[in-house]
Amino acid sequence: MRATPRLLQPKTLLILFTRENCSLCHKASSVILEVSKKRSFDYHQVDVMASDQQQWKLLYEFDTPVVRISFALFLGAAKSRPKLHVQRNTHKNTEIKEGGKIRKLMHRFDERQVEELIDETEAHS
């Protein structure tokens, strides 16, 4: 069976790296919620302190919140659990692969900045 072009269509992927008891993380989540009312993207939230998130803890433990914006290819049913374990995944049992240039915002950012990076990502996908 071959993947159809529709399955390989890139979609904007936004990942928020966060941790418990982080007031900036709560603010970042609110900003993303407001952007989601105007824009369409696939959103995931990752707790960098979770035991199964060592790779992200090493990168972002002292930098949360971090929002990464790229595009995703959803490649059908995953053969095993995806490497990116998220709190909210709209594509369960699907392999997610990040593609293109990864753009990031760290610590403090507003809706305009998030939307600008989404625009850049979509222009280059």
Structure description:
This is Glutaredoxin-like protein. It holds the Pfam family Glrx-like. Keywords: Electron transport, Transport. InterPro entries: Glutaredoxin-like (IPR008554), Glutaredoxin-like_YDR286C (IPR052565), Thioredoxin-like_sf (IPR036249). It comes from Alectoria fallacina. There is one protein chain. The chain has 125 residues and is of the alpha+beta class. The chain has one domain: Glutaredoxin (3-Layer(aba) Sandwich), CATH 3.40.30. It is 27% helix and 31% strand. It is built from three helices and four strands. The chain has helices at residues 23-36, 54-60, 111-123, and strands at 11-18, 42-47, 66-77, 94-106. Strands 2-1-3-4 form a four-stranded mixed sheet. The longest helix has 14 residues, at 23-36. The protein is globular. Mean pLDDT is 78; it is low at 75-95.
Task: Quickly list its features.
Glutaredoxin; electron transport; four-stranded mixed beta sheet; 125 residues; 4 strands; globular; alpha+beta; 27% helix; Glutaredoxin-like_YDR286C
Q: Outline the biggest β-sheet.
A: 4 strands, mixed
Q: Could you name the CATH topology?
A: Glutaredoxin
Helix content: 25-40%
Write the CATH homologous superfamily.
Glutaredoxin
CATH architecture: 3-Layer(aba) Sandwich
Summarize the model shown:
InterPro entries: Glutaredoxin-like, Glutaredoxin-like_YDR286C, Thioredoxin-like_sf. The protein is an alpha+beta fold.
